[in-house]
Specification:
- The chain is α/β, with parallel strands linked by helices and about 500 residues long.
- The protein is built from 14 helices and 17 strands.
- Strand 16 and strand 17 form a beta hairpin.
- Helix 5 (about 240-250) packs across helix 6 and helix 9 packs across helix 10.
- The longest helix has 19 residues, at about 440-455.
């Protein structure tokens, strides 16, 4: 029987019993509460309960910074769910609920910057296939985000000394729940890998630099989560924005506790309005801030002891946020027309040099793909992050670059988030991930190497090519495409030249 729901799908947690369901040899537990919290306060333990709680429905997700809207579901299918600031819950997929089995555990921090997103927002976040394919316990986490999770009110009241990092403190509470309970779900609390993409990757980096996370994980992977200054807390100060926000809301500074009663929507809109009135563009910085809970951006302030001893995979994708103008049809251009487009972008003096460097680095790509090569978002920052880890004497760091061309508009280089379905073994849930006969091979390769890393600390496959760690002398990059290869410092010179000519501004609109 493929489905089961009853006494045999019930698990005891530290606070009480929960009941999930089993489908095709995988047990599912949704919406499991790991903490509770008052607004702007650190998370607290939940009370124990009598009887059995059902864990068959996803829990509330946190309110987004701005209301959800329809996006591009073709390249990145989304799901939406009821929202609340009482959103400290997680989901578990496992093939065993026997204590003592001790399977490796992988814990996912969702993307969306620190503004948006949830543990179920992207269809590709579903943990069923990854659990079934790799026989690992998969956990995905909801937590407080945007002004509910990262509004620094400490300058106004000691009561809010932890408010700037409340969202990350939720993530640590989730990891503590995993540490205390996951053995009852067949997991090994001493073999926990944390991983995340985009903002989720930044969450991995920042949680690793929080002293309270020590001992709660042993490996980590960052996917397009190295954004350099764009999502770094270095030099950030929310004080003036908060002062202006209080004026907009007609709240005196000495009455700041009234913010606890303002609706999330009013709070978010007032903070955004304050940002714009003070001359800011796009969205204001919202994210962790260096204080007693958080050591700060490790590239700027140094790596924690736990981060130093943690093996890590750091990856990004070919285009990230760069796309061709709608007027350019990649599939229809001749070489001469592509060269003309490059010249229009970079000038005649630089054209030939850039094309030559690009073709050396990416001989399989079209010349026009140079215009979508990520020269400003994650690729360069990944290189800098890796070198900072090496300089600090951190454990092995492995680098990957995801470079396929997908069928959207008859040819789109890999965009932000496009590697997620391959890691989660969920290309069947994202139609635009299709690469023909190469899809399954690449999916097995990427998901398989991640699973091997979660189990051993090394992303090696028994019959696959060796993936070396980076060193100060050699940057080894695993290039994931329809065929996979390790390349050394292959795009460093190209990136340096591109950065002189093309800037990137991470202003979310």
């Amino acid at each position: 029987m493929n489905f089961e729901h009853g006494r045999k799908t019930t698990v005891k947690t530290e606070k009480g019993w929960i009941r999930g369901f089993r489908y095709r040899d995988v047990y599912h537990f949704y919406g499991v509460e790991y903490a509770q919290a008052q607004r702007f306060m650190p998370p607290e333990e939940i009370p124990a309960w009598e009887g059995v709680k059902e864990a068959v429905n996803y829990g509330f997700t946190c309110y987004p910074f701005r209301p959800d809207r329809i996006g591009n579901n073709l390249k990145n299918p989304h799901r939406f769910w009821p929202q609340s600031e009482n959103c400290q819950n997680l989901n578990v997929w496992t093939k065993s609920i026997e204590k003592g089995v001790k399977k490796p555990v992988v814990v996912w921090f969702h993307g969306g910057g620190f503004y948006y997103g949830s543990a179920l927002e992207q269809t590709a976040y579903d943990g069923f296939n990854l659990c079934a394919f790799g026989d690992v316990v998969v956990v995905t986490v909801n937590h407080r985000i945007n002004v509910l999770g990262y509004l620094d009110l400490a300058p106004f009241s000691n009561r809010y000394s932890h408010s700037a990092n409340a969202g990350n403190l939720d993530l640590i509470a989730a990891l503590k729940w995993v540490h205390r309970n996951i053995e009852n779900f067949g997991g090994d609390p001493d073999q926990v890998t944390i991983f995340g993409q985009s903002g989720g990757g930044v969450k991995v980096i920042s949680v690793m630099n929080m002293p309270d996370s020590a001992g709660l994980y042993c490996r980590a992977m960052i996917m397009s989560g190295t954004m350099g200054k764009h999502l770094s807390d270095a030099g950030r100060d929310m004080t003036q924005n908060v002062k202006r926000m209080l004026k907009i809301l007609n709240i005196e500074e000495q009455e700041i506790e009234k913010l606890e009663e303002v609706s999330h929507r009013e709070l978010a809109e007032a903070y955004l309005k304050a940002h714009h009135e003070l001359g800011g563009k796009g969205l204001p910085y919202i994210g962790p801030i260096k204080n007693q809970d958080y050591l700060g951006d490790p590239v700027v302030y140094g790596f924690s002891k736990q981060a130093k001893k943690t093996p890590m995979i750091v990856g990004s994708v070919f285009a990230e946020f760069f796309t061709l103008p709608a007027s350019i049809q990649r599939y229809a251009l001749t070489d001469e027309e592509m060269r003309a487009e490059v010249e229009a972008e970079f000038g005649s003096a630089k054209k030939d040099r850039l094309i030559d460097l690009f073709q050396q680095a990416f001989p399989e790509k079209k010349i026009i793909d140079l215009l979508t090569y990520d020269c400003g978002a994650a690729r360069g920052a990944a290189k800098e992050f890796i070198q900072a880890r090496i300089k600090a004497g951190c454990a092995e760091t492995y680098n990957y670059f995801f470079t396929p061309v997908f069928g959207i508009n008859e040819g789109q280089t890999a965009l932000h988030s496009s590697d997620i379905p391959f890691i989660f073994h969920n290309t069947d849930k994202v139609p635009s991930s299709d690469l023909g006969s190469a899809t399954t091979l690449l999916e097995n390769e990427m998901s398989g190497r991640f699973i091997a890393f979660a189990k051993t600390g090394k992303p090696q496959l028994e019959k696959g090519i060796e993936w070396p760690a980076c060193t100060a002398e050699k940057e080894a990059t695993m290039v994931f495409d329809c065929s996979t290869a390790v390349k050394y410092d292959f795009d460093t010179e190209l990136l340096e030249e591109m950065r002189k000519l093309k800037t990137f501004s991470f202003e979310l609109s």
